[in-house]
Amino acid sequence: MKKILLCGYMASGKTTSGKLLAATTGFPFIDLDAVIVQKAGKTIPEIFEQHGEIYFRKLEHACLKEIMESGNSKFVLALGGGTPCYANNHLYLQQQDVASFYLQVPLPLLTSRLETEKSTRPLLAHMDTAALAEFTAIHVFERSYFYTQATHTINTGNNTPEQIVNQVMSLL
User: Fold this and answer.
1) What's the pLDDT tens digit per position in 25-82?
2) Whole-angstrom Cα distance, residue 17 to residue 12?
3) Does 129 score more than 80 pLDDT?
4) CATH number at residue 150
5) What is the per-residue DSSP string for 15-45?
6) pTM of the predicted structure, to 2 decimals
């Protein structure tokens, strides 16, 4: 069995599916964003506000590198939405000891999910539905090259986390 990496846009279900996948495989679950928060002692919005995106991306890369090179051969890792897009992080998706999965969510569903999460996502809080839909479509388009570097793409549609985990398990 390999290291399992989940990538995809915000609200694509990486953490929810990742926890369930970890329980199914018996592997430890790691949420990259949680590791960053623990290491920085600040929330991600605080890191962005106080230090900027470049600082955040450097910290994100350092944390990812540390996890990937830790010697642990079995874990489920949920990446941040932008992780594969910076510092050649997408290359981790292609390593021989990695099974990586892009959780691809249809744009209308993704926008709907993000609409309900705006209060916890400062970058989106000020956007109305139309602006959010456009922002999401542009971002997903810009990031899709990096996401599709994953070994497998799973179109999640309206699938439950259990169905997504079953799809992942069938591909391992």
Assistant:
1) 999 999 999 999 999 999 988 898 899 889 999 999 999 999 999 988 899 999 999 9
2) 9
3) yes
4) 3.40.50.300
5) HHHHHHHHHHHTPPEEEHHHHHHHHHTS-HH
6) 0.94
The average confidence (pLDDT) of the chain is 94
CA dihedral 116, 121, 126, 128 (to 10 degrees): -30
DSSP 99-161: EEEEEE--HHHHHHHHHHHGGG-TTTTT--HHHHHHHHHHHHHHHHHHHTTSSEEEE-TT--H
Q: 77 lies in which domain range?
A: 3-171
Query: Which run of H or of E encompasses 57?
Result: helix 53-68
Structural domains in the chain (count):
1
Sheet holding 76-78, edge to edge: 29-31, 76-78, 3-7, 98-104, 152-155
DSSP bridge pairs for 7 = 102
Residue count (the chain): 172
Tell which residue, 78, 35, 36, 76, has the closest CA to residue 57.
36
Judge residue 141's burial from the number of C-beta atoms within 10 Å of its C-beta, 0-12 exposed, 13-18 middle, 19 or more buried. Answer: exposed
